[in-house]
Amino acid sequence: MNKLSIKIFEKSNDIAEYLAEFIISKLNLLSDEDSFCLVVSGGNSPKNIFSYMALHYKDKINWSKIKLFWVDERCVSPKDIQSNYRMVFDSLISKISIPLNNIFRIMGEENPITEAKRYSAVINQNVPTYNGMPRFDLVLLGIGEDGHTASIFPNNLSLFSAQDICAVTIIGQTNQNRITITGRIINNADTIFFISTGKNKAEIISKIVKEESWKIYPASLVNPKNGILKFLLDKDASFLVDL
Known about the structure:
Layout: E1 5-9, H1 12-27, E2 36-40, H2 44-56, E3 66-70, E4 72-74, H3 84-91, E5 103-104, H4 112-126, E6 129-130, E7 133-134, E8 138-141, E9 166-171, E10 176-181, H5 183-186, E11 191-196, H6 202-208, E12 228-234, H7 235-238
Parallel strand pairs: 1-12, 2-3, 2-8, 3-5, 8-11, 11-12
Antiparallel strand pairs: 4-10, 6-7, 9-10
Helix pairs in contact: 1-2
């Protein structure tokens, strides 16, 4: 993993403000024809941050310039409480003015293999390329307590070298199908932010930032060689990190 950049915030609202201002700064650099390709993830940390942004940045961010993608999705209905799309819709999309044509959700209710191929094509058609691969402007990732990120878990690290843009993975404990963007595409992004809050994430965060852990945890394999990687942590998530 390249040298880490870690930013520690007092609370999740401060992370939301940092993220929103970062997006605004990037939007200000775009030409009239360009869009900002943003990839979001599920989980409680981003839910709180999206809710804050919807409340305080509804009119400050030019949402019409943002193309919204998902890094992964459970194979469930978009109305299911487990759906990452539903979480982002409830906390953000339903409260802002973003064109429907700018929302590119993974259709978790469809056949997983067919949908992984369809979503790969959607990404190819709507995201600029760099090094012959789609290049997102910003990818927001979470970290599970087992070190997983997106839907890449410790038992399927091969998804970081997979040639596909999207892949289907099965979660062992629940036998649930998920669709995920693969590690190769994640690592081709211009900027990646790991967002993590809460004391329950402190132990895994401290392990991931140690170089010797890189072979064990999927989150340690996030390493954009031609991009920027930052950890945005609140005090609770960072208290075991040696800075």
